[in-house]
Request: fold
Amino acid sequence: MTDFVGCRTLEIADAALGLTFPLLVLYPTSTPGQPEPIGPYRLEVALDAPINPGPFPLVLISHGTGGTPLTHRLLAHFMACHGFVVGLPRHHANHRDDNSWHNTSDNLVSRPHHLSLAIDGLLAEFGAVLRPDWVGLIGHSLGGYTALALAGGQPGTATEPPQPIPVVPDARVRALVLLAPATVWYRAAEALRNVRLPILLMMGEKDEWTPDFHAQIVLNGVADRQQVQHRIIENAGHYSFFSPFPPERTGPAFPPSQDPPGFDRMQFQVEMQAEILQFLLQQLPQPVAG
Reply:
């Protein structure tokens, strides 16, 4: 475990579409941090500090539709504390400030591609400090769709008959963590047959947006069901996987801050972070540096 977490933001270019998107990066450093404003939140980080010697494994976290990567800030900080470099892309035109690609084919095609571009950008930025051949993906909701596409999933449209959604897998991806994933684009019988990676699949018992059938699509679709660790989180909702919001943003008028009655989001964060860390460490071929 490292003592401190560095933080910097990269701009990742999609030359084909003529756009860029921001990628927040948290990483192990020896530079002491302090509470810094990161969006509307505060994190204990050292801004633009030098990264420690690696090699470190890389993890990307893909947020849900219309969301923000900062809803997973505590998980990212925890992983960086434990020897991972963590990339948090803000998906173009599918975030809280601009959701114009919601429910479009452009979004379904570009999301996985942008994760691959983010991997390229991180390898260019950090060089030999990163393992070039091992990347883990964590995806919540539509981020789960995104992770499965990069792991070899072949999504299709909701039309009849389904039309293929053109995505390109990335062989650098070696493990998936799916948190309440949205998976309806993989309903075709063979859509997930090429996904042959270890998967940690966590679902909320009382998820109102991605109920259990989304998990069943994964369990019944992947090449080897034994590679999937599936857990239903008792009394959890769709947003229970988010970092807790500050008091001024918590209330019934803001659904992402709410959980089913009696659910302790902060306590679950502690459990979830430890479970995800253990799962990813188990997939590494050798111990994590740091």
Remarks:
- The chain has a mean pLDDT of 95.
